[in-house]
Amino acid sequence: MEIKKKVQFFKRLRWMGVVFGVIMYMATFMAFGDVAAMLLAAAASAGFFAICSREGTRTMCQHVADDLKTAVLEAGHNRCIVEIKSMNAGLITRVYLIRAEGKETLLNRVILERINHSWYRKSIWVTQILGMEDESELKEAHEFLDEALLEDLKRKNGESWDEPEDKDKR
Questions:
Q1: What is the pTM of this model?
Q2: If pLDDT is split at 50, 70 and 90, which confidence band does 165 have?
Q3: Which domains does the chain have, with CATH numbers?
Q4: SS3 for the chain, per residue?
C-alpha cells in the first residue's frame, strides 16, 4: 500500500473507535451499569482513536525521514541524520548534514525542493537544516536547534516567555 494511502487509511480508521465505544457500552451496561459502561465506552473510543492517530503519524514520519535521506543521497552526499518531531501544529523536520563542507547550499535546496514537491508538505510545520563535523556534535546541535525554534516562536507571538507577564496590562 502506498504510504500516502496508508496514512489516510489510519486517519479514517481512527473514527471506528466510535463503533467500538458503542459495542463496549452495549456489552458492559447490563453488568456494570450506565456510568461505568459510559466510562468504558469512552476509554475504548479514545484508546482506539489514539492508537490509530499515533500509527498514522509514525508511518508518515518514517516516510518523511526516508524520503529526505534519499534526497540527500541522490544529491551526492551520504552522511546525514534526519529527525522528525511530531507536534499538534505539524511536523518539525531536522536534517543534520555531516561533513558537507561546500555542499550545504545545494543540499539545502534539494531538501526544501523535495519537501515542496511532496504530498506531505502541508504536514510539515518547520524544517531545520544544520551542518555538523561529526555525530559527536549531535547533542549540541539538537540544543541549538531547540533554542532557535523557541526564539522563532517567541518572535512570531511577539512576547517574551522569560519574563513574567504584567497582569495590569490585561
A1: 0.80
A2: low
A3: 3-157 (3.30.300.30)
A4: CCHHHHHHHHHHHHHHHHHHHHHHHHHHHHHHCHHHHHHHHHHHHHHHHHHHHHHHHHHHHHHHHHHHHHHHHHCCCCCEEEEEEEECCEEEEEEEEECCCCCHHHHHHHHHHHHHCCCCHHHEEEEEEEEECCHHHHHHHHHHHHHHHHHHHHHHHCCCCCCCCCHHHC
